[in-house]
């Protein structure tokens, strides 16, 4: 979902428990930050958790913003202009992203007010001297890194590690900075700056394409390559020969990522290699939350399988005996035959073929189908109907309901934490408990006698108003019944009087006739 002005206008905006104005953009699969200028810098916190961001860039001037929540994205690049865009940033949460190099964190050093930083779940945490580099890069403003407080002793040791007595960078600091230049992470447009051309950064396109996940992201990438290589993992469940793919995640490629690929063959030495450490880490993270999910295979973008795919398939044999290959061909010019009438997806199972006394890996196509759940069908039907033409009142009530639900969920979490603390199931955090006590103390007292009297009076007034309304309605119905009874009775009386008149007139006339 693109971050359009309409999406921003419909997003929840509320006062969070820290009394900050927060903009909630969680779980929309947003691929890039854009159009934030329409918010007019009215928020202290912006929550981008669980989206598809690949770069922390393109932020407008947000002087009020001091907290960015960016967990569970795909961020691998931080724009150097972040301090210009958000100069008052104090808290950044980058948990479970794809930052790989220490030097990629250097733009964070330009944030003069940064105090809290979280990088858990990033490949960069496995680098040597990770904590020391971040502490030295962010200078004295950073207080807490990955939920661990930074001590003055650490700051002094970090300075001695990266700065010589003459105030010059050490060889270690120089090597770390050079590592970033060898692995480009992305291009950033700075207003008023010099234009940057893609040709000025060799290998930029291949490196960015290797981290993409879907055809939509590929189309968004501005590249001149005919076939950028895209790869990711498939996870799900397997029952016998039936495989159900539930989720996917992208994979990191190593080796020569600038090697050309003509769609038919590529040398194994020149081709990219799977980062098995990253694959294992991300797979274990998914299994810790969803134990039933297993690694089933991999996906890529290509018209037909080639020798390159056969070589890559062998790298997955350590995770499953028969890794499934899912191929996506989103462009019509590359789709063939019946693919033009169906979804451009092909599924293959690797098999061993013996030819000329030599074995090789070949792919046998297997059948597949799209299986949707009840929730997905309801969502698609609702979208197809255009949202049911709801009015402003319905939209407002839905927004209020969502806000109340979120408030209720957070209150339940706080109550559970307090209960676990009392039962010694959770460690006591006095700072959190003091904050909870202050929050409760700030709420108006609801058990005073004045409040109870006022509440009883208001309750009685509401009940009396309801009773009078019912009484008025009953009197109106009774009045209608009486009017109808009078009308019916009146018609009967008029009919009886008419018959008597005709009899009286007949008597005299008959007498007159007889007399003649």
From TrEMBL:
Gene Ontology molecular functions: metallopeptidase activity; U2 snRNA binding
CDD domains: MPN_CSN6 (cd08063)
Coiled-coil ranges (or none): none
JAB1/MPN/MOV34 metalloenzyme domain location: 225-311
Gene3D superfamilies named in the record: Cytidine Deaminase, domain 2, Ribonuclease Inhibitor
A cellular component term, taken from the record's GO annotations: U2 snRNP
PROSITE patterns noted in UniProt: LRR
Similarity field: Belongs to the peptidase M67A family. CSN6 subfamily. Belongs to the U2 small nuclear ribonucleoprotein A family.
Protein task: Component of the COP9 signalosome complex (CSN), a complex involved in various cellular and developmental processes.
Protein known as: COP9 signalosome complex subunit 6
